[in-house]
Specification:
Layout lengths: L1 H14 L17 H12 L4 E3 L4 E8 L5 E2 L2 E2 L3 E15 L7 E12 L8 E15 L9 E12 L9 E2 L2 E2 L6 E13 L2 E10 L12 H5 L2 E9 L2 E10 L4 E13 L2 E10 L11 E9 L3
Antiparallel strand pairs: 1-5, 2-5, 2-17, 3-4, 5-6, 6-7, 7-8, 8-11, 9-10, 11-12, 12-13, 13-14, 14-15, 15-16, 16-17
Length: about 290
């Protein structure tokens, strides 16, 4: 309960962030031009880091799936979830295609705040390097807008625990990871954005030794729709493996509340909500706040 209170206070602080902004700072009398420019950038928040995927904190997420236990510790099927995702532009137009080059980092955590000691059940780390190439397609029915090429790593940062047990209970292998490449083709039809993504693991062997059948559950492709209706934003994503019949569907809804804070609702059904659960299907509904869209 203590952790929940801290979490809610954190959310309230973000909602009221404009009460402690920099509007009272005056730089008109600063004589040094370099100092004045630096202060103006600081006041404007003009930094190189940009948001990438959705940044959110969801205090309440309910799953129909039993998350199991680690030794004597039994996980609850109600937990919090948070994600931080940022990108940095490192180059542009090197090939004359008006392309942009980025590195990014995303961090998704599943937080058991409703049980004693409030442990993080699972955290997934996802660094990427990618290039986006703009496409101004006005003649075809597809209305292509961009092509993205990326190389990425995703893991839960856990050690190999094969053969390890606690109090006579085998842990299995907690380590899960994959290196992969992917490409995303983006299309636009008025307020509907469609992203078609294809991906593949880099090699086999050690790359998938922690989860050799991972691709059976997540497949090699996905489609995501993003739709805007006024201030409302809806997304629907589907991915899967046609050969095995396994995959996942995720839907989200967001609506601006105050400043840059949005109501955020996420529903998930299928495999690989997190890497540790890649081979177990679950249905989950979570609600909270997002700070980017």
């Amino acid at each position: 309960m203590k952790s929940l209170i801290i979490l809610l206070v954190f959310c309230m602080h973000l909602l009221a962030a404009d009460a402690s902004d920099n509007r009272t700072i005056n730089i008109d009398r600063i004589k040094n031009d370099n100092s004045k420019e630096s202060m103006q950038k600081w006041l404007n928040g003009d930094f190189a880091l940009e948001t990438y995927k959705v940044n959110y904190i969801l205090p309440y997420g309910y799953s129909d799936h039993d998350y199991g236990s680690i030794g004597p510790l039994k996980y609850d099927n109600i937990e919090a979830e948070l994600q931080v995702s940022l990108k940095l532009k490192v180059g542009k137009n090197l090939c004359g295609l008006h392309e942009s080059y980025y590195v990014s980092y995303s961090h998704q955590s599943f937080w058991q705040i409703y049980i004693k000691s409030s442990p993080f059940r699972e955290t997934n780390y996802n660094p990427e390097a990618f290039v986006t190439i703009p496409i101004n397609d006005t003649s075809s029915p597809f209305k292509l807008r961009s092509l993205k090429l990326a190389i990425a790593h995703k893991s839960n940062g856990q050690p190999n625990t094969e053969g390890v047990d606690i109090n006579g209970v085998a842990l299995g292998n907690l380590s899960k990871s994959i290196n992969y490449v992917y490409t995303t083709l983006r299309m636009q039809h008025d307020s509907l954005i469609t992203d078609l993504t294809l991906w593949a693991p880099l090699g086999t062997g050690d790359n998938l030794s922690d989860n050799p059948d991972l691709m059976d559950y997540i497949g090699y492709s996905s489609i995501k729709f993003t739709y805007f209706y006024g201030e409302h934003m809806f997304t629907l994503m589907g991915r899967g493996n046609l050969a095995t019949g396994k995959g996942a569907v995720e839907a989200t809804y967001s609506y601006p509340l105050h400043n840059n804070t949005n109501l955020y609702i996420k529903a998930f059904n299928g495999y690989e909500e997190s890497l540790i659960d890649y081979d177990r299907s679950l249905t989950k509904l979570a609600i909270g706040f997002s700070f980017s869209r």
